[in-house]
Structures are given as C-alpha cells and as structure tokens.
Amino acid sequence: MQLLPWQLAAAYLLDLLAGDPQWLPHPVRWIGRLIQRAEAIFHDAEASPLLQRLAGICFWALVVTLVGTATMLFVSVLTHLPPYLEHAGVVWLAYTTLATRSLHKESSHVARALRDNDIPLARECLGRLVSRDTAHLEERDIVRALVETVSESVSDGIVAPLFYLAVGGPLGGMIYKAVSTMDSMVGYMNDRYRYFGWFAARADDVANWIPARLSGVLLVGAAASLGLDWRGAWRIMRRDARKMKSPNAGFPEAAAAGAMGVQLGGANVYFGQVVEKPLLGENVNALTLDAYHTMIRLMYMTSFLALVLSVSMSLRHLIAVG
C-alpha cells in the first residue's frame, strides 16, 4: 500500500501536535520489546565471534520478518474496515514512525536545565538521549552533544522515515524503524555487541545511506530559508562529512555545523573509553544555548522540506499509476 499525499501530511501534522505520549499505543515501543526478547533468545556472549555474527544475522532477519508481517496483516485488516477507519489506521501507523516533536521535547529538558544552571540535571537528561558518558561533561560539551544528536536525528528520526513512507508506504516505514531501532539497541562496538550487533549496524548504514545525504542537502536548504549560512553548510558538508567513521552521520552534522558556524566533534567517552571524533565545521561562533535553539529551528524547517519532498514523491507515484 502506497500512502496518499494527504495521509503523509496528516501523519506529519499529527506528530507535530501529539508527539509521543506514553499513553498512546506505539509500534516502535513494541518493536523495542520484540528486540529485547529476540536478543535474549539469540545472543550468547560466550559464543565464538563467528557464531555471534551468525546469531546476529538470524536475530535481525527474525525481527524484520515479524515486523513486516505484522504491518502487512494490520494494513490488510484496515482494508476491510470503513474508509474513515482505514485512513485513520494508516495515518496513525505512519505518524508513529516520525519523531520531530519528541526530539524537540526530549532535548529541551537538557536545554532547560542548562538555562537554570543545573549542570547535574542537564547531564542526567542528556544521558537519556545519547550513548556517550555524560557524568563529567561541562556546559559547552553538553551543548555540543545536544547539537550533534539533534542534527544526526534529523536524518534517522525525520527524513529517513518520511523517505521510506513515501517509497514503501507503511511497510517501508515500519521496516525502517525496525532496522533503526535494532541499531540503536545492539549496534555498538563494545564487548557485548561487537560481533552480535555487527550486522544490525551495517544494515542501518545501508538503510540510511540515501536519507543521510538527503538530510544534508535539506539542511542546506533549511539554512537558506532561515537566513543562515547555507553556503557554509554546503561547503562544510562537502569538506567534512566523510571524516566520520560512520558513513552517514557526518552529512547532517557537518551541514548543521556549517550553517551555524560552529565546530562539532572532539573527545567523547563511550563505555569508559575515550573516542576522538573528527572535527566538523569551524569555530566561528560559540557553542552556547543559542546554538541549540538555532539547531531546533533548522530541524523544524528541514522536517518541513522533507515533508514537501515526500509528498511530491507520493504524488508523482499516484499520477504514474493513475
């Protein structure tokens, strides 16, 4: 099933209005529970690296198969309901793949604590958003972490879901969320997941290859729309995006850094180990709370441009088949 243009727009608006309230049923949370249970079945940390890799592939295939099957069954049931219920179900399913409002909400808790000069609370709130250790971060590095995670999440939390909803309908959107959620839960290069999570991490790299680059271009467009340094965004993205070990994260991060004239990257601590990330951008402007608020403006404008693009893709498909 392909999404109609108005269904995509309705899902986007619903995400802006409702966000991710805990009381509302949410398939991505169900996917998270499924991943936990599947990992308990497949993951044996004492097994050889080869067996762990094979188990990780089987784990990944099972989760994707179950999510895809459940989505197709749900959509099939919807087609037998009255049209208004069918449309409501499809819009709800698409809406649950988007994270614009929740990304703003969760990051704003950190910003509010910084505004109140409550560094310990800011570290605690940031720890819910990022995998890096936050216990000893000072204000500048907290802001840097905020800007980095929001800019990267523009791709995997907004642009990528809209892209896959446009090209693959609810099935495409939900499978993408399964792939992305597995990476966020097991795709780490630590002792526990180095081998078991290897395939999940590589699959996420493949799934995000196009959306990450698209996100960088859309961030340049958003910078132009907001009167920011779009030329700098384009230049820094082209210069610095491929410095990152990740094949994808550098594109939205570098574009955002260039648009705001800030420098991202540097030393982070993950699971007790210091990791030096490459520097992205130039240290023209200070990393203060103003940078975070500018990043939020960029995020919303980029999400709108991504919506326009996804609706255009859906409309083009509708015209082609109709």
Automatic annotation (TrEMBL):
One of the Pfam families matching this protein, by short name: CobD_Cbib
Topological category with respect to the lipid bilayer: Multi-pass membrane protein
First-listed, main subcellular location of the protein, grouped into a coarse class: membrane
Sample GO molecular function, one term: threonine-phosphate decarboxylase activity
Residue ranges of the TM segments: 54-78, 158-179, 298-319
Any single GO CC term annotated in Swiss-Prot or TrEMBL for this entry: plasma membrane
An individual GO BP term: cobalamin biosynthetic process
Keywords in alphabetical order: Cell membrane, Cobalamin biosynthesis, Ligase, Membrane, Transmembrane, Transmembrane helix
Subcellular localization: Cell membrane
Known pathway: Cofactor biosynthesis; adenosylcobalamin biosynthesis
PANTHER family: COBALAMIN BIOSYNTHESIS PROTEIN CBIB
Family per record: Belongs to the CobD/CbiB family.
Entry-linked NCBIfam families: cobal_cbiB
Matching HAMAP family: CobD_CbiB (MF_00024)
Physiological role: Converts cobyric acid to cobinamide by the addition of aminopropanol on the F carboxylic group.
Name of the protein: Cobalamin biosynthesis protein CobD
Source species taxonomy: Bacteria, Pseudomonadati, Thermodesulfobacteriota, Syntrophobacteria, Syntrophobacterales
Gene (UniProt): cobD
